[in-house]
Automatic annotation (TrEMBL):
<feature type="compositionally biased region" description="Basic residues">
    <location>
        <begin position="54"/>
        <end position="66"/>
    </location>
</feature>
<comment type="function">
    <text>Protects eukaryotic initiation factor EIF2S1 from translation-inhibiting phosphorylation by inhibitory kinases such as EIF2AK2/PKR and EIF2AK1/HCR. Plays a critical role in the regulation of protein synthesis.</text>
</comment>
<comment type="function">
    <text>Cotranslationally removes the N-terminal methionine from nascent proteins. The N-terminal methionine is often cleaved when the second residue in the primary sequence is small and uncharged (Met-Ala-, Cys, Gly, Pro, Ser, Thr, or Val).</text>
</comment>
<dbReference type="GO" id="GO:0070006">
    <property type="term" value="F:metalloaminopeptidase activity"/>
</dbReference>
<dbReference type="InterPro" id="IPR050247">
    <property type="entry name" value="Met_Aminopeptidase_Type2"/>
</dbReference>
<keyword id="KW-0031">Aminopeptidase</keyword>
<feature type="binding site">
    <location>
        <position position="216"/>
    </location>
    <ligand>
        <name>a divalent metal cation 1</name>
    </ligand>
</feature>
<protein>
    <recommendedName>
        <fullName>Methionine aminopeptidase 2</fullName>
        <ecNumber>3.4.11.18</ecNumber>
    </recommendedName>
</protein>
<dbReference type="InterPro" id="IPR000994">
    <property type="entry name" value="Pept_M24"/>
</dbReference>
<feature type="binding site">
    <location>
        <position position="293"/>
    </location>
    <ligand>
        <name>substrate</name>
    </ligand>
</feature>
<dbReference type="InterPro" id="IPR002468">
    <property type="entry name" value="Pept_M24A_MAP2"/>
</dbReference>
<feature type="binding site">
    <location>
        <position position="413"/>
    </location>
    <ligand>
        <name>a divalent metal cation 2</name>
    </ligand>
</feature>
<keyword id="KW-0479">Metal-binding</keyword>
<feature type="binding site">
    <location>
        <position position="318"/>
    </location>
    <ligand>
        <name>a divalent metal cation 2</name>
    </ligand>
</feature>
<dbReference type="InterPro" id="IPR036390">
    <property type="entry name" value="WH_DNA-bd_sf"/>
</dbReference>
<dbReference type="GO" id="GO:0004239">
    <property type="term" value="F:initiator methionyl aminopeptidase activity"/>
</dbReference>
<dbReference type="GO" id="GO:0005737">
    <property type="term" value="C:cytoplasm"/>
</dbReference>
Amino acid sequence: MEKVEPVAGVSLEEGKSEISSDSGTAAEPSSLDQKDVEEKLDVLTVEEATEAAKKKKKKNRSKKKKEQPQQTDPPTIPVVELFPSGEFPEGEIQQYKDDNLWRTTSEEKKELERLEKPIYNSIRQAAEVHRQVRKYVKQNLKPGMLMIDICETLENTVRKLISENGLQAGIAFPTGCSLNWVAAHWTPNSGDKTVLQYDDVMKLDFGTHIDGHIVDCAFTVAFNPMFDPLLEASREATNTGIKEAGIDVRLCDVGAAIQEVMESYEVEINGKNFQIKSVRNLNGHSIGPYQIHAGKSVPIVKGGEQTKMEEGEVYAIETFASTGKGFVREDLECSHYMKNFDIGHIPLRLPRAKQLLATINKNFSTLAFCRRYLDRLGETKYLMALKNLCDAGIIQPYPPLCDIKSSYVSQFEHTILLRPTCKEVISRGDDY
């Protein structure tokens, strides 16, 4: 027999024969009673179906509300809208080694981290912007593009995704897109017509910040696969530096480990073999609020400082692999500038220099900037005033840093945070 399921509001006894109190035998239902029951069942079935449909529709609406918004292509949605909770993704977590393993389970250290949560969240927001912007830019890079177009596309995307807001949120320093033997600090000035070529090795180094908490992260692009070992050398050397870094670790030990990995690589370029070298006068560095170079340097060769890394510090671990001399010098036209962090009041004679300094203070403070950024703000005929500020020691110029011509340099860089309980690679992504 089939099981009869009850219908809400209707007894299983309805529609059956009534029990006679006199005889105790079942009476046959009248045709009218049977019809009434069937109509009642039909009405209830329709009502239940309607109610169930309403509930399903409401459930679907609530599901849609809970779905996390997705980034557009090209990216235009600020990351704050993609993470409605206000909590941004944690970077890659690495445990400390040896004598610092106890930190992982220390309740005291965990409490210190809870107190720093707002700062961690700010730097994670900046890192999420960096990841999304570089993903978009890397997908669209190809030979034949103007370098200035690459930079402006990247920078405008950062401005959108970070919800640029004066000194509270924005670009941390100019987009470095140094080519081949130029290792760092080159970005095109206005009017530059340099074109990216198939055989170029381009270092894309850009920064983001929230409330002055800076993410400094870089990668290298080469279309020609013959450069792959050069790129792999700096990528693996950077990962080694990250692995070795930690609280109470000496900076010189990090540098020695980096050099050992870096110089284990060779590369063949156009039929000629090159032993890859670390660029010995370029370093990683500590980072402070609104201060890209906060005082400590992380060497990429052995023999550096005995200074130790400390709890709570933020570092940019970056390495440069070269087929040249492994030594850079200043060359080419300057594009990068930055106000000196500890500069006091210096009287200026030129009214134009005073006006330019006011623009720099308002828009960049002690964050680095380039001439294109001044152009964007409407500044014109400012080169003499800018030179005056440099001569006075208020602004520091940062010319391009170059190895020997015809050599090639690659770079990879990540920002790490030495948390009380663990090491967080803030800028780590699926790409590198």
